[in-house]
């Protein structure tokens, strides 16, 4: 019965079937008989099926077999077996034969194939079953596992799959039977396939015997070509093969019995060749391959299986180990150039870890910490020389470049050398010691009066004193010892220069007003301040020498300011004696502006003395107190001289007024001229002019106000004494007019300049005004 249409849900049940399929089951257009139901007609019932199973990638072979062994499958029984492949290392696979029960995905028993040899076996009459007649076996020292299949082709498939999985060198040869002989004599090759293989050039390889080839050399060529192709990839592979490449090489090793140790020796040798040619190879990859070879050679494999090693492999491993040691030593020595800016990330740290492995005698005996530290110390010493040589070739003694280089080392490589931090510090000290040789050579070639090297000291000292480990280190001390004589010589020279500028400057000084004083004083104070700032900015590392420099500079400033004060004081006395614009002490007198400039010089020195002479530690005012008292005395003397000069003008005016005293010889004669108040007016003008001169020329308002107050007090006292001497006589009208004008006008002028009321309206002033009002009343009565 045939029904090409689709079944519907309301159709009657025709029959049923049961399939036993496995991952290798694939059939298309397959007609199969169904088991008919009791209501179905007697006609034959078949169904057409398409069955496809997707085999897992790690499944190499599966099927029903009989098996019996010593350690696994101890009873002769039919089981379902699968040959599976698992990844245990990078580029290293493990094959195992597993048995399963129906509807169970976990194996009941498993036998790793590592160390087993697969071969065909003769039939065992005691084990022959009706569905297990074709035998093969897996042999290892101390264990034999016997298998049997129902068909010859199935046995051949199992043997070939297991042969590729074990990677054995012995190739199994099937036993020759009568059926095989007849088939070999009667069989003929397909002519079309033969012709096609000849045309493609593969006929020689197809007909050749694989056992006659040296597969180790062929594998070496294949692996080298594969690695070269991988390294030419536009994306950086760092030596890692792609999964497909690893699978192809793995299959070749399994099929043709390439030894695992020799394979990794070839791979490690190729990686070293490429790394020495300048290719970037991941140290982790070198580490994996080296550990595998080491464990194989030393017999300490992680799976505890028995392995063998040839003399060729052992000698090759020793040679590669020595090459790898030299390569890693070169990598650590040139770490800045092998791993620029710490890239690839973690590569330097992995290199140091691999170096510890390589320096160890074997995988179980690690190298001592002292030995590895000595080796790293030697590498870093050579690295310091290499780095400085390359820097010095690029630029002649560039300190900025050296500092930047070590800062990059600290930023990008300190984490990798974390456990060797003291060795990295020693590496930096060696680097700076090489720099110190060139630095001293350059300094020795400079002229003795040249100070161009001080910026170099400032740059290096600022870097070193802020460094956690190099501060006060060997190079820092050497830098201090090299520049200490230069600093002392520079201070001596500056002291002599400032002293000469004071001597020559004041001799030629024109006493023109500058910002705060005269040209010579400002130049002196600027030099003293600049010298102290320069020495302070050096941040001298030795506290004792730094304190000595500070005391010397403060004492120098005190001595220079004192010398300046003496010279200014001497010039002031000379100028105060010269008189004013016209000369003498007449009412036309005006204080010379030069005298005001000299006062400003002393005021400026006094203002700068605290900064220039006060210490920052110890006795703060050891030098400042003395110079401050000295300058205060000079200012007091100058103030007295100025006031005395101004009061002498009043004295000259009152001498003229004394000629009008009652009963004097000149009183009547002078009265004929009918004067009004000319002398008083001239004195008031003189006072106003000098008040304005002092206010405009002297920079310190407090000092100026003190002069005004003292001047007004002495003026009032002088008038009070003068009137007291004439208490018995009446004042001449001219005298009275001049006095009233002087008192009223000067009172207002001094009040405008800021003199306080208590000083203006003193008791002497009140007595004077009372006397003048009395005289004024008396004259009015007359």
From TrEMBL:
Start-end of Polar residues biased regions: 167-189
| Compartment(s) of residence | Cytoplasmic vesicle membrane; Synapse
Keyword terms, alphabetized: Calcium, Cytoplasmic vesicle, Exocytosis, Lipid-binding, Membrane, Metal-binding, Synapse, Transport
Its recorded name reads Calcium-dependent secretion activator
Keyword set includes Transport: yes
Q: What GO molecular functions are on record for this protein?
A: lipid binding; metal ion binding
| GO process annotations (BP) | dense core granule exocytosis; synaptic vesicle exocytosis
Residues of the MHD1 domain:
437-568
* Entry GO CC: cytoplasmic vesicle membrane; presynapse
User: Is Chloroplast one of the keywords UniProt gives this record?
Assistant: no
- Please list the residue ranges annotated as the PH domain: 58-167
Q: Which Pfam families match?
A: C2_CAPS, MUN, PH
Segments of this protein annotated with the region Disordered: 167-198
């Amino acid at each position: 019965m045939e029904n090409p249409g689709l079944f519907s849900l309301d159709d009657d049940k025709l029959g049923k079937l049961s399939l036993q399929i496995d991952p290798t089951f694939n059939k298309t257009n397959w007609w199969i008989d169904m088991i008919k139901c009791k209501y179905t007609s007697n006609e034959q019932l078949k169904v057409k099926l398409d069955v496809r199973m997707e085999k897992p990638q790690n499944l190499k072979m599966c099927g029903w077999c009989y098996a019996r062994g010593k350690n696994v499958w101890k009873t002769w029984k039919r089981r379902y077996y699968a040959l599976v492949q698992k990844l245990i290392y990078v580029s290293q696979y493990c094959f195992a034969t597993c048995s399963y029960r129906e509807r169970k995905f976990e194996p009941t028993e498993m036998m790793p194939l590592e160390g087993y040899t697969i071969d065909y076996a003769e039939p065992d009459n005691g084990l022959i079953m009706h569905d297990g007649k074709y035998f093969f076996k897996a042999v290892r020292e101390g264990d034999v596992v016997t298998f049997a299949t129902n068909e010859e082709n199935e046995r051949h498939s199992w043997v070939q799959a297991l042969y590729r999985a074990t990677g054995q060198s012995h190739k199994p040869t099937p036993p020759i039977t009568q059926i095989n002989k007849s088939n070999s004599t009667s069989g003929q090759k397909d002519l079309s396939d033969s012709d096609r293989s000849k045309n493609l050039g593969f006929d020689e390889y197809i007909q050749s015997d694989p056992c006659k080839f040296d597969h180790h050399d062929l594998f070496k060529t294949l692996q080298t070509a594969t690695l070269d192709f991988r390294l030419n990839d536009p994306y950086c592979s760092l030596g890692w093969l792609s999964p497909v490449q690893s699978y192809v090489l793995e299959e070749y090793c399994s099929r043709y019995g390439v030894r695992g140790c020799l394979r990794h020796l070839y791979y490690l040798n190729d990686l070293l060749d490429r790394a020495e040619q300048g290719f970037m190879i991941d140290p982790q990859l070198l580490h994996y391959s080296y550990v595998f070879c080491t464990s194989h050679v030393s017999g300490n494999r992680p799976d505890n299986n028995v392995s063998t090693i040839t003399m060729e492999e052992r000698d090759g491993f020793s040679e590669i180990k020595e090459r790898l040691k030299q390569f890693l030593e070169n990598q650590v020595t040139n770490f800045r150039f092998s791993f620029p800016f710490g890239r690839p990330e973690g590569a330097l740290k992995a290199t140091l870890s691999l170096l510890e492995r390589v320096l160890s005698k074997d995988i179980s005996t690690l190298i001592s910490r002292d030995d590895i530290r000595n080796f790293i110390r030697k590498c870093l010493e050579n690295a310091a020389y290499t780095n400085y040589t390359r820097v010095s070739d690029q630029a002649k003694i560039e300190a900025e470049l050296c500092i930047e280089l070590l800062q990059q080392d600290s930023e990008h490589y300190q984490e990798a050398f974390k456990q060797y931090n003291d060795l990295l510090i020693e590496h930096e000290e060696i680097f700076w010691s090489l720099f110190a040789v060139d630095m001293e050579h350059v300094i020795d070639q400079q002229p003795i009066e040249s100070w161009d090297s001080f910026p170099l000291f400032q740059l290096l000292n600022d870097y070193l004193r802020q460094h956690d480990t190099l501060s006060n280190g060997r190079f820092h001390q050497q830098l201090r010892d090299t520049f200490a004589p230069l600093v002392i010589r520079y201070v001596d020279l500056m002291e002599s220069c400032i002293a000469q500028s004071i001597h020559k400057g004041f001799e030629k000084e024109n006493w023109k007003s500058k910002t705060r004083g005269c040209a010579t004083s400002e130049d002196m104070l600027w030099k003293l301040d600049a010298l102290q700032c320069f020495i302070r900015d050096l941040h001298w590392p030795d506290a004792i020498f730094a304190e000595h420099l500070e005391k010397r500079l403060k004492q120098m400033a005190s001595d220079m300011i004192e010398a300046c004060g003496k010279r200014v004081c001497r010039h002031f006395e000379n100028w105060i004696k010269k008189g004013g614009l016209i000369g003498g002490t007449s009412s036309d007198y005006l204080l010379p502006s030069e005298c005001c400039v000299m006062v400003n010089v002393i005021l400026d020195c006094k203002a700068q003395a605290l900064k220039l002479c006060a210490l920052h530690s110890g006795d703060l005012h050891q030098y400042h107190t003395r110079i401050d008292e000295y300058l205060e005395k000079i200012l007091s003397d100058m103030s007295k001289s100025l006031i005395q000069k101004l009061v002498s003008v009043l004295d000259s005016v009152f001498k003229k007024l004394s000629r009008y005293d009652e009963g004097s010889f000149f009183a009547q004669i002078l009265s004929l001229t009918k004067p009004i108040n000319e002398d008083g007016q001239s004195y008031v003008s003189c006072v106003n002019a000098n008040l304005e001169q002092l206010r405009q020329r002297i920079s310190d308002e407090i000092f100026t106000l003190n002069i005004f107050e003292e001047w007004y007090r002495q003026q009032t006292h002088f008038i009070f004494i003068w009137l007291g001497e004439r208490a018995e006589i009446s004042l001449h009208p001219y005298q009275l007019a001049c006095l009233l004008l002087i008192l009223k006008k000067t009172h207002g002028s001094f009040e405008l300049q800021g003199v306080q009321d208590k000083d203006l309206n003193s008791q002497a002033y009140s007595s004077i005004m009372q006397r003048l009002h009395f005289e004024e009343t008396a004259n009015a009565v007359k």
